[in-house]
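Notes from hallway chat w/ T.B., transcribed later so I don't forget. T.B. wanted the structure written out for a chain they're using in a teaching module, and asked if we could keep both sequence and structure tokens in one place. Agreed to drop them here.
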Amino acid sequence: ETTMGEYMYREQQDYIEILNQIPDEWKDSVRISDYQDIIISVDDNNISYDNIEVTIPQYSEEGTWSLNYISVSDAVRNYLSIYRDSDGNYKNIQTNELIDLGFKTEFEVISSNPDTTPPEFKNLELSQYIFDVTDSYATFDLSADLTDDISGFISDSHFTQSNIDLVWSSPSGGQFFGTIRCSDVSGAC
């Protein structure tokens, strides 16, 4: 996962991925392979995708949303990744060449009650705070309390699930561990 300018690049295979960014945060990754009802038409070396339902979550930010990233790969993993730079130009990530997409890349969202405030951490506790890893690895449990003002943390759409990522770094900053992702709508991680 790499952030470059106004897009996020995640090297994936066998699907197209679109990432939208609004100021200071990422919103909604659309992965075509996530959908069971899509229609894929293949004719020699051409492919078309139809019937892709994209959900714009309730409380999304109002205004013009722009396509910021497209990534597509073929059967042998050749890929094309295109991003939108800060001037609104589309560029090939590999070559940095300008690309004229030739299709509309924006849509309007109307929202009278947008949620533009991130969740707030209230508390984080570890089961212990000193670990001796001289002879073996160590584990710990943690508890976290968060709050959110409008949209909350649970949704009926898998695109709007909440999550928590926690990463610890060593004193030198050279080692990292423990990325924790919790995004199960049932509340289990």
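Follow-up for T.B.: The chain has two domains: 2-109, 117-189. Might be a good example for the class.
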